[in-house]
Amino acid sequence: MRPLYRYFLIKLSFLLATYFVAVSIAFFLPRIAPGNPVQQIIAGLSQGSLSPELLDQYQRRLIEEFGLNKPLHVQYLEFLKNAFSGNLGTSISSFRQPVTKLIAWHLPWTLLLLIPATLVSWAVGNYLGARAAYRRGTLFEKITVSTGIITSQIPYYWMAMVLIFAFAIKLGWVPSGSAYDPTLAPSFSWEFIKSYLRHYILPFLSIALVSTGGWIIGMRVLATMELGSTYVNFSERLNVSNEIIFRYVLRNSLLPQVTGIAIQLGTVMAGQIITEQIFNYQGMGILLARALGTRDYPLIQGIFLILIGTLLLANFIVEFIYVLIDPRIRLGARE
Amino acid sequence: MAMLPSASAQVSLPREDTVFVTGAQWSPASTWNLFSPSQTWGTYTSGGFMYLPLFQYIAGLNMWVPIIGESFELVNETTLLVYLRPEAKWSDGKPITAEDVEYTYKLSREVGSGPAAGSEPYISDVKVIDTHTVQFTIGEEKNLPMFLLYALQFAPAPKHIIEQVYEKVGADIINWRNCGGTCDDIVSTESGDVRIDLPQVVSGPYKLYYFDELRIVYERIDDWWGKDIFGLPGPKYLVHRIYLSNEQALLDLRQGNVDWSGIFIPNVGNFKEIGTFYKSKPYFRPGAFVMLYLNHRDPIFQDTNLRKAIAYAIDYQEVLTKAFYGYSEQPSMSLVFTVFPHYRMWLNTTLAQEYFSNPEGRIQTNKEFAKQILAQAGYKDVDGDDYLETPTGEKIELNIIIPTGWTDWMIAADLIASDLQDIGLNVVANPVDYGAYWGMVNSAGYTLALGWTSSPSFYHPWDTYRYVLDPRLTPPTGNWGFYNNSKALEFLVQAAKAETSEELMKYYTEVQRLIYEEVPAIPIAYSVQWYAYSEKYWKGWPNEDNPWWTEVAPYREYSLPLWLTFGLSKSGEEIKPPQWAKPKDEGGILIPNKELLSQLTEVFVPEITPTETFSTSSASETEPQSPSEPQEPSRSSGFIIGLVGIIIVVIIIVIGARKLLK
């Protein structure tokens, strides 16, 4: 078999296995935790004026309707069967809405935030990191690196709170939360897009700033190592212009950073889930928090299915791109 | 972005015509169908902007608002006549008739959900007398207060619409969303999916305009039938915004993005831009009781001495000021809602004085006395760990569960735990996530828990006693402590049948004595009605300076938050409190509760032996049957199977991968 295909197959089998295990954990974990979704619905209703007799009736009906009275292994098998046929079930807390529909509504908002924030911070961070390495000892390096170290260690949610406090509450320049003005509904009108962009600034910054710091640090180390290599020395002796050497160094140290993006995606996603809650930004973070809070089993499973699937797929694609760029990996896969 | 709601993708609401609300709905809108078990804020039981009841009791005023009903008459001990307003109309112009009431009742019975569901023991029949007269007949249990509560607060649905849905989908009508074309209105039945697509026909002054995952928008019906009686609500649009956490909601309230809120606000006095009912402490109106429930299924709480010692050891004042920000005063041990005078009359002050040396029945913190009770009962530190053991030498390890994130409750539980440690009990506060909290309460898997009671009704304190003491109830519907005392049940049954207020008082006194002696659960504070507002866009909010209305947390179904909107005016306009919002003798339309109570005591109640009526309850005297028990999702056995399954799969994968790699 050609090494590329072989590599592809091995990676694919790992991908599927990881996916399966992760999704199974997503099935079992919420069910081990005490409490179930039906109890919570009934508890919510019990604060109203419904009679106890009626609430008991509802509770029994709901437990039966969602199959929560079946043994766990039966539920698990059903879940697997449904998952493979693309049926993620219906949400318990969101009144029998198909899980796929809920995710389809929330996922675009998350991706709109996640992808630009990751790509921009990757590009900016790597550029700044390489520059910092290249200009060793200058004030630019000191400032960039120290800011990078500090921001990269800040948790996303804390950055979000600091930004809200400074720019929304104290200065009042931008809205403090949600994805667009509450008087508007999503549409492709200019008014809506303007409102969306204004609301976009803080969530975007809180994610991008923190990730940029990480990229700066990583890149600086890689570029510093690269700067000590023979081709740089050789080029310097040949009096090649600084800009050209910088471009060589940048390009050569970028390779590991490409795989880094796949690893980073998971971290950013995890951070974004909390960030979204702070901004009441209607992406997957809000949906997941709601699902976990209400023990909405089908919804929790569905979200993990999609999130893990997306992340694994992104990793897979990035790794594959890497193989295409760097023949060493392909060759290494043979042995 | 292809998933945008189709029908009304273009919404841009004029801010000055819109009231933004928060705090009543924490998850996306579900259904606006009166026959569904789950409902959305605004439908009926949680707001009443769309479907109105015949009458509504308002606890803070102790008055009834005649809404679709004009008057009522308790003919005899089994029959109630309700006269409907001739001017009442559905939003499509058809009159609201006795037939609508009868049909709603019958259908609701048939499908086991809706306005009449749960009324089985209390209402046996509903009959049309003429177009505008309905007759209700009392149910088997002969419980007049519950009969009246269900009958008077009954919300009819439009028969001419509901009939069409029922013909199409039968009992699956409970899954109808009734979103009037703003969503895919499909009901799944056994024979397949059925599209409904009927207009939304309502009795209230608002109907659904638009909704998505983060908001629900209602639009005012400008030619609403009731405008000559009640006027029209101020805001053209009502938007309930759905937040995940209090923090964003509070931020938006402070910035004026939200006008009306029902959320917990710590130290509200610090925020000048937020208005509350009272200008200074306690800021908010009380709503129900915050209780410390003791799990009576735990053998340790069989000992009354321990329960009593706990009650005496808690420093209530400290908890109220430090944890609850002074939003509440210390409640009476009697579980009578003493802050409202019309409820306070049911407190036996002599008895309270006798037990607690004050007429309010407030327990006075006395740690020395608590220690003394325990010492006399034989509680000793046997093993020298500074904590007491039971008289039989068993270790005592208690914890107080509270939902994590409920910061006021978490502080309260910490304070209570340290108070109890002071008297030698090993108690810690144990915050658990809300789902886990409910799991533990429901399955009696806790020792101590902070919890709540239902809100007082027109027949208070009966409703609160039932919630805390009735052994026939189990959480989450009541009796969180699994208290099981046949004497308490008997008093409750007798009180419901009492013919005169003297007789009623006799039974309430018995219940109060029982509570003082037995300490089945401990009231810690009043839960607070989170009613707060911003005046940036709207004025006329009810408060102590403008008390035209009361109790208007947006989630308080028993005060029908709808009424608040009738008094709102745009900022800059003149404030005009509605003229109808007064008792009848002051020129308004409100019916004083005492009018109903006097009708109640006038009718003769036949003697019924408790054994006959409560034959079902005899079984519960030994062990209350939790109806949910047989249905509890099975966990342990299945979990092990699942875990083994996962391990096997992982092993197969690893072996397979290694083979491939070779």
UniProtKB/TrEMBL annotation, chain A:
<keyword id="KW-0812">Transmembrane</keyword>
<feature type="transmembrane region" description="Helical">
    <location>
        <begin position="103"/>
        <end position="128"/>
    </location>
</feature>
<keyword id="KW-0813">Transport</keyword>
<dbReference type="InterPro" id="IPR000515">
    <property type="entry name" value="MetI-like"/>
</dbReference>
<comment type="similarity">
    <text>Belongs to the binding-protein-dependent transport system permease family.</text>
</comment>
<feature type="transmembrane region" description="Helical">
    <location>
        <begin position="254"/>
        <end position="279"/>
    </location>
</feature>
<feature type="domain" description="ABC transmembrane type-1">
    <location>
        <begin position="107"/>
        <end position="318"/>
    </location>
</feature>
<protein>
    <submittedName>
        <fullName>Cellobiose/beta-glucoside ABC transporter, permease component CbtB</fullName>
    </submittedName>
</protein>
<dbReference type="GO" id="GO:0055085">
    <property type="term" value="P:transmembrane transport"/>
</dbReference>
<keyword id="KW-0472">Membrane</keyword>
<feature type="transmembrane region" description="Helical">
    <location>
        <begin position="299"/>
        <end position="325"/>
    </location>
</feature>
<dbReference type="GO" id="GO:0005886">
    <property type="term" value="C:plasma membrane"/>
</dbReference>
<keyword id="KW-1133">Transmembrane helix</keyword>
<dbReference type="Pfam" id="PF00528">
    <property type="entry name" value="BPD_transp_1"/>
</dbReference>
<feature type="transmembrane region" description="Helical">
    <location>
        <begin position="156"/>
        <end position="176"/>
    </location>
</feature>
<feature type="transmembrane region" description="Helical">
    <location>
        <begin position="7"/>
        <end position="29"/>
    </location>
</feature>
<feature type="transmembrane region" description="Helical">
    <location>
        <begin position="196"/>
        <end position="217"/>
    </location>
</feature>
